[in-house]
Amino acid sequence: MATGYVRPARAEDAAEIARLQLLTWRTAYALLVPPHILERLDKSWLTDRWREAVTAPPSDRHHVLIAVEQSGGAEMAVGFVAIGPADDDTAAPGEDSPRPDAPVTTAAITDLLVEPRFGRRGHGSRLLSAATAHWGDEGFTGARAWAFGEDPATIKFLTSAGWAFDGKTRGLDMDGVVVPQRRLHVALT
Fold it and tell me: If you ran DSSP here, which 8-state letter would residue 81 be given?
């Protein structure tokens, strides 16, 4: 029987995180993301970005966590979440940025992916639970995440965990192709 857990990402996980992102995007988002974008995604470039996110995060409130599945004595990374304080990248169009001197009380998920063949085994829930624990420890009172408008799996997962749409939408420009997104939020109190 397979079991799983979540741990902080390490520098040596960067290539595996990039592999998970590429595989998941090319499988789960093949109908959402323009094909030429998926074809041009470069594993070495992604690996470098993830290594930087893990080893030199923008703040001590930014984290990358790995979901690990254990089976038959072997362990395998099967998903990850990247979290941090909400910022301009998680704001909706026309939404004011917080004042620079104001404390940020809203957290954000910037990436939450589980390799499709390992879906529905609790890895996403474990990642979300670990993220929520970090947010509680760091004093966040709410969280937000963007989801592709036509991504029923992510939307169903987050709404089943108590998240709701906040009415904000945006078009993510992917090399001239606008992909609609909807924002979800949750109170952490």
Answer: E
